[in-house]
Amino acid sequence: MASDTPRRNLPPLELYVPEPKFRPGDDADFSDIEVPPAGETRRPDTADDHGDMPDLAYGLVRVLDEDNKAVGPWDPKLDADTLRKMLRSMALTRAFDERMFRAQRQGKTSFYMKCTGEEAVAIAATFALDRDDMCFPSYRQQGILIARDWSLVDMMNQVYSNKRDRLMGRQLPIMYSTKQGSFFSISGNLATQYPQAVGWAMASAAKGDSRIAATWTGEGSSAEGDFHSACIFAAVYKAPVIMNVVNNQWAISSFSGFAGGEATTFAARAVGYGIAGLRVDGNDALAVYAATQWAAERARTNKGPTLIEHFTYRAEGHSTSDDPSQYRSANEAAEWPLGDPIARLKNHLIALGEWDEDRQAAMDKECAEQVKTAAKQAEKNGILGHGLHHPLETMFEQVFEEMPWHLKEQMQDMLDENEAANNVAKTR
Amino acid sequence: MSRGDNSTSQRNMIQAINSAMDVAMERDENVCVFGEDVGFYGGVFRATAGLQEKFGKTRSFDTPINECGIIGVAVGMAAYGMRPVAEIQFADYIYPGLDQLVSEAARLRYRSAGEFTAPLTIRSPFGGGIFGGQTHSQSPESIFTHVCGVKTVIPSTPYDAKGLLIAAIEDPDPVVFFEPKRIYNGPFDGYYDTPVEPWSKHPASEVPDGHYVIPLGKANIVREGSAVTMLCYGTMVHVTMAAVETLGIDAEVIDLRTLLPLDIETIEASIKKTGRCLVVHEATRTSGFGAELAALVQERCFYHLEAPIQRVTGYDTPYPHSLEWAYFPGPVRLRLAIERVMEDVSGEV
Ligand SMILES: Cc1ncc(C[n+]2csc(CCOP(=O)(O)OP(=O)(O)O)c2C)c(N)n1
Question: Which of A319, A411, B48, B99 could form a disulfide with A113 if both were Cys (CB 3.0 to 4.6 A apart)?
Answer without folding.
Answer: A319
